[in-house]
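Q: How would the structure tokens look for this protein?
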Amino acid sequence: MVDLYPPTCPYDSGYLDTGDGNRVYYEQYGNPRGKPALNVHGGPGSGAPRRPTRAWDPERYRVVRFDQRNCGRSTPHASDPAADMRLNTTQHLIDDMERLREHLGIGRWLLNGGSWGSTLALAYAQQHPERVSEMVIPAVTTTRRAEIDWLYRGAGRFYPEAWDRFREGVPEGERDGDLLAAYARLMENPDRAIREKAAADWLAWEDAVISNEPNGRPGMYSDREVDAQIAFVRICAHFFSNGAWLEEDRLLRDAHKLAGIPAVLVHGRHDMGSPVQTAWELAKAWPGARLHIIEDSGHSASEAMQETVRAAIEEFKNR
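A: Here is the predicted structure in token form.
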């Protein structure tokens, strides 16, 4: 795969004090006077990439990355049981993004986010449409309860043995109830060994779902150090057991608020965890959005999917 630009390292980094005990890590790449763009990472709880950026023209873009609350380099880290998850909701993250924009003196920015990052980018854009210039969204999700139920229950029809192991990761009396709430309770247990096992069981399921995609590989989710595993699963279980605090279908119903914001949506035909139906529905509801369905890709991006995302980034750099 050929990257467009040489590796670019950050020219600035720091911590944003949210005023409630959280500190959100951020860094900036490219040209300080360039077109602002915000990368919104997935998960929730994955943290921003640690590698240099190569997809963005460093002469034309000012790229901002940040670690959402309680993950990556932001503090307190969710691997610490003292970290208060009540202060980490979708609205908290939207407010952090807006606070970061103001802190950096940015008027409007392009939003780029995939998977959970697409949900958060959409929620932010619908709340602050005047602050968004364009959007580039691969692996589209809106984190509806229907989507969550598919990922953590419905997909078990294809991987029944792995789903049984996921189900057996919670106490026997909770296996026929709300599995995500049960995992959320396990991730709040003061015993680190219990949290580590619950995280490993959760990530084994995530690995299974992506395993047979065209570009899947073993350990795509579990291949991270233990504290990062704990933080990822604790945050995911917290968000998904609460439906991300989003009214069902809200992001689709309110897509009209994004009219006038040019957008490119890119989704893999073989995305097992986030079937293409959501991307299709969003494209139909969003005036001006263009959807590219990539035939050789799933949730894990193929070269064709990455090239389509890069082409959108290139297209918007001179706008």
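Strands lie at 12-17, 23-30, 35-40, 61-66, 109-113, 132-138, 263-268, 289-294.

The radius of gyration is 19 Å.

Upvote if useful.
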